[in-house]
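Now for one record:
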Amino acid sequence: MSDMLSIGASGVRAYQTALTTTSENIANAGTAGYSRRVTTVREIAAPTDASNTTPNGLGVAVDGINRVSDELRNAEVRAAGSDLGRSEASVVWFTRIESALTGNKLDERLTAFFNAADALAADPTASAPRATMLQAAAVLANAFAATGTALEGALADLDQSADATTAQLNTLTASLAKVNSGLGRSAAGTSSQAALLDERDRLLESMSALTDLNVQIDSFGRATVRAGAGGPLLVQGDQAAVATYARGPGGAVSFAVYGVEGTKPLVPAGGVLAGIAESAARIADTRNAIDGLARDVANGVNAVQAGGEGLDGNAGAPMFEATSAANFRLVLNDPRGIAAAAAGAGERDNGNLAALSALRRDGGFETSLSGITTANASALTGRRSIAEVQGTIRANAAAARDSAAGVNIDEEAVDLIRFQQAYQASGRVIQVARETLETLFNIR
């Protein structure tokens, strides 16, 4: 009779644990990164001897709480997230370039300036066309300066973003090292171990969005993480590396990590860091191209000015000053100083404006600016298309992972009913055993 009580009590304990696990699954059905738990129950067999070859069971016991997970699918989600992170970061910064190039209408201002010079050629002595051309020159100077400043601002903001991203990566690696430490101390098949494994996978997924990873899992569930296929160690056991960021004056970006195996360069091929590196190079190249265009326009116009004379008969003075686009400025403030006439040809001559028109044609300034803008627009369109595809790939990878490891409410509801019935049956066994014992005790 005591065996009956023991069997019933073991069932109550085991199925209470199973009910608790199922309830936790249901409660966390919408929790990101939560993997379903399964309580494994085994029979407690009676000792066997020569006369008892088919022993009766002595109840049930919980073998452990197993966490449902598929590391291959987790790795697929991380890889897809890394690719998507790079593309999305590039889209952000390529969009900033596009905004800088088009937001200040530099192309329109450049065309308007040369058109104003052509209009002045019809009547070189008229004050109104001269004022219009000088105003167009002022607007062009402002557009160049605003475009250059916007590109420099984009680089400054990118630096801040890169610093914030590396700081985020450092926070994640430090957290993963702590999780590794906890996994080394936690018992297998426990709720605490399952919670730590959930946190481990969540951290790895967040890290993969920042840089591509190579992950190895040991028998304790601890993750050893490298950046990329053969990159530096980011996490090993309870040790975490520290990532740093730097950008040279030419726009070249470098990342490094130190701490686990000394100081090593980090060359991300995926994640936000790779997008930042790619974007920094494109912003710097675009800024350099706009700076070169600004200098060419300023120097070319000033050279034409020097070859002619203004209404006062003096040689044309410089119209612009520019060592870069950001400091492009108008230095001629008198419309009469516009050198429309060729040297010695008289105030009604427009020969020098013909030289300005030739500069427009031969210099190809408008074509160059259009090429810079179009190249970035094409790259942006391509990145957006790639990001859309990569977003679908990642969503499908996450869905495949969640279909195996996620919580299905319908299945959990069935398990809940099943375990409730088993719990009630075990309770009934205890009740019957108790009633039987009371009956025996009451026999006189």
